[in-house]
Each structure stands twice: as C-alpha cells, then as structure tokens.
Amino acid sequence: MIAVVRSEWLKLRTTAIPWVLAGIALVITGLFVLVYFLNHGAGGGGQRQAIDNGWGPPHPAYPHTVVQLRDLLGRSLTGYIFALLLGVLIITVEFRHKTVTTSFLVTPRRWRFVLGKLLMAAIAGIVLAVILIAATLIGGGIAVSAEGGSFGSLAGQLGAVAPGLILVFALFALLGVGVGSLVTNQVAAIIICLGWFLIVENIIEAIWNGTVKWMPSGAASAAANVTAGRGSDIGLFNWWQGSLLILAYGLFFAAIGSAVLARRDIT
Amino acid sequence: MTSAIEVRGLGKRFGPVHAVDDLTFEVAEGRVTGFLGPNGSGKTTTLRMLLGLVSITAGSATFGGRRYADLEHPVRHVGAALEATSFHPTRRAEDHLKTVALASGIPTARVDETLELVGLTDVARRRVGKFSLGMRQRLQLATALLGDPEILILDEPANGLDPQGIQWLRQFIRGQAAAGHAVLVSSHLLSEMEETVDDVVIISQGRLVLQTTLADMAATAGAGTGMRIRSPELHRLAEVLNAVPVGWRQVAPDTLVIDGATPEWFGPFAAQHQIVLYELVNERRSLEDIFLELTQGFDASHPMPVDSGQSAPFQMPGAPS
What we know:
The structure holds two protein chains of two kinds.
Chain A: H1 2-13, H2 17-41, H3 47-52, H4 66-73, H5 80-96, H6 100-106, H7 110-146, H8 151-155, H9 158-182, H10 186-207, H11 216-223, H12 239-263
Chain B: E1 3-14, E2 17-28, E3 32-36, H1 43-50, E4 58-63, E5 78-81, H2 93-104, H3 109-117, H4 133-145, E6 151-155, H5 163-178, E7 182-187, H6 190-193, E8 199-204, E9 207-213, H7 214-222, E10 226-230, H8 234-242, E11 248-252, E12 255-259, H9 263-272, E13 279-283, H10 287-296
Parallel strand pairs in B: 3-7, 3-8, 5-6, 6-7
Antiparallel strand pairs in B: 1-2, 1-4, 8-9, 10-12, 10-13, 11-12
Helix pairs in contact in B: 2-3, 3-4
C-alpha cells in the first residue's frame, strides 16, 4: 500500500490540482484574517471602547486573550471545504482524463484503488492544513506584532489549535474521496459538495432544529475543538465523536463507491 | 506450444446487445496473433474483458489459467496499450511512467529504458498534453512494456503512426515475439498486420469467424486465382490456349486472364509456342480481399464451423470450389 500511496503522491503533484487549490485556499484564508483585523480595528470587538472609558485595566486593540488568539489562528478552519474539494478532485480527475484505465490496469482490485486515494487524500489534507496554519500564523503574527502585540503569543496557541485543524482537513479530504468514488463526474461531484455546504445544510438546519451536530459542518466544528469546553453548550459533539462522524461519512460513501466501481465497465 | 491467453466461450451483453458472443480462441507464446475485425465487431470489448476493465457476462478469459485481476502485479506479466487518450495532460511522459512503476514495484531505472526503447527519450520531460497522436501511441507502448511483461496486448497500435512509425512498430512486435513473448494485436486492417502476424483471429459482430495461421490463409488465398497476360500476339495465344483444357477470358484488347494457371505452368507453355509476352501477372486475391469477404459476408446467425486452435481448412464465401 505504501507503493500505491507513493504513486498517488506523484500523480497528485504532477497535476495542477494541489497548486491551484492551495493557492485559492491561501487567498481566502488571508481574506478571513484581514476581515478579522478590520473588525477589531473598527472597534467591533469592543476593546477600544474599554480604553476610551478611561477606567479599568487598559485593553489592547489587538487579539491578546487566549480565546481571541485561538480564534485568529482558527480562521483557516474555513479551508476545510478546500480539503473536501481536494479529495473530490484527487479521485474524479482520473475519470475526467480517463487515466483510470491505466490505474485499473495497475490496480485491478478497485477497492484498493479507492483505498489508495483515501490514504493519499488524508495526507494531502494534512499538508493543506499545515500550509494554511503556517500562512495564518505568519500573516496574523505579523499583524499582531505591528499593532504592538507579540508574535510569540500567537505562536503559543499553535499547540491548542493546529491538531484539531489538521484532523478536520485530513478527514474532509477523505470524505471528498468517498463522495468522488460515488459521483465520478468531476463537475457533478463539485456541485454536489458546494451545494450541500452552501445550501442544503442550511435548509435542513432551519427545518429541523438540533440537526447541526449530525451535519458534516457541525462535526467539523466539533472535531476542530474550536468549541473546547463549550461543545455541549451549543449542541455539538465532542472532538472525537465529531471526528468519527466525518470518518464514518467518508468510509460509508467510499464503500458504496467501491462497490459500484467494481461493477462498472471502463470503456 | 503453450497458450499464453485463453478465451473460452466469452460473452458480453450490453442490455439486449450481444457485443461479444461465445468467443473462443487462444494466443500462443512466441507468436504474434492478429485480432482482426471491422470497427464495432467487439475487438476492444474483448480486450477490455481480458484485462478486467469490462465485466464478463459469459465464459472466461485467462492468462495461464488466471484472471487478470488475480495476477500479482499484473503489469509485470501483461502489458496493455489501449486507446491513446488516457494521459493526464499536465503530466510529463517520464512521470506518467513513474506512477505506474511506483505502484507496481518496478525499478524507476526501467522508465528511462522503456522511453529509449520507444524513442521518446528526447521528450521525456515534456508534458503529454503537447504530444502528437503518434507520440501518445509510443508512450502507450512504453507503458505496456514497463513491467517487461511476457504477454503484450495492443489495441490498434498503428493508429496515428506515420509510415516510418508503422515500420518501426512491425519490427518492434516481431522482436517481442522473437524474445518468446506472446503478442495479441488488434486491427481493423489486415493489410496493416500482414507482415507482422503469425496467427489470425477474425471476428465479426462479436463472433469468431476464423482462427488460423496467416500461412494457411495465404495458401487458401492463392487457390482459385489466375494469371493476367498482356501480349501483342493475343489471337495466337488464344489459339494455343484453346488446345489445352484451361478456361480463359479476354479482359482488354491486348490482355487476357487464364483461370487457375500458375507461372510455373504458363512460362514454359508460352516459350514452347514462342509467344511474345509484355506482362505476366499472378492474379491472386489479396488477404485483405478475403478478410473483407469473411467479415462482411459473414452471417452471424450461421457461424462457420471452426476448429479452434487448428489450422483447419476453411471455406471462404465467394471462393470458387
């Protein structure tokens, strides 16, 4: 299986997918960080008012509390949708360019092909998470420093935030492969994923209260541990329950996808 | 002679359509077997069933008794070159081969060897999207050869090759057979394969029409043919021909055709009667003619009796008996 993953890694980095996706994800994460600082600068966070009142301890205008710093670092969580698309693209690109013919000649047992993609996607998801966290740390850290805070205070929260983000990215990339194994048409798979997260989930949540914790996005928030200690307050699972839920979704789709693929004629 | 590939009662239904029906043939080691039939006759479907890409609805297709999917690292035993479109356009030629090599435990040094073998060394670092059809065909061949397999399956490999490329392909295929490998190569043109193949398997409408050796097919082609003679003394030639028991007919003012004659007979005959000849042509039907008759005139509801694997004498539609 290691050999298959090495082959998959070479396949992935010889396509435009990782570069384009990572680029888009970086830009969007950068925008989120920027918006975060703009809000603070405009007094949206309420800190400036505390200073103006002239009493009580002076509050700096930059993120300095643990919650604020973690919140800033956690901005890149929004990139998990890109991890999902990364997973979708990793498998559907083979059908789009018909390279799946060669892949099935090399790996005629098709569940092994899907398994290789799942492992590759999980690794690629981790790499994407690390890139985005690093970008957030650098961008956010520079901004915090410029406003008088310390880079180190932000970096100090890395250990609390990064593992959850990495976990969520790996699991969502895996979920993407599951979806892509079932819906091998690239465009259809992307539309289904985006449509689910942007529209369908919101509708379901609006109709049935409390379903959010069963939704992939709710599970992502839980698994990322951004609600540490508050999970139950807002009706989410804890981090490992959320992780298992995403994993279960991913493997469920991958199992059905593998079974369908095993019967499919590649012509 | 051992069989490298065995196809037994193979069938494939797409809904109500029998794309391949009760197909049985063998491919021998150390020989090149031409898999011939018109477009849409079921060649590609058969090859894809052999390779586990298309599911089988009846019968079996095996390599030394094992299905493709049951082979350990199949690309090291069976090399396949199917259609020339299945490359990722941004991937470099050598990277494409490396993905296959890595997954199959083939040393990556073999990548350069195969690129050299098919003459793509100069473009190894070029993206496949920029390749011509001929270059893609060569890269497909390189992919098939990567695992140094003992069995090669090539689907219309001559498509898109220029005349030099086809010449190269012929020598290449002959070289593979000479090395003891079994080669199954499909084509819709017999003429393309005539100089390359040892055995022929001809199918039409998904059913076997004929399995024989090319030599036997050529021998049969020779039967029932004639000689075309051009001579300034046609009337005198006609006189002497009327004295012997052969049929002839005039086809032009200075040309006639003698049925069933051979040069060995006619040469001395003409010399004996001191007839001046301008032209003496052995008029045999080409293999391509026979191939076309077999595949076009073949009625799928009445298959010809075929003794598979043997070079059985066969009756050709339209052939004089």
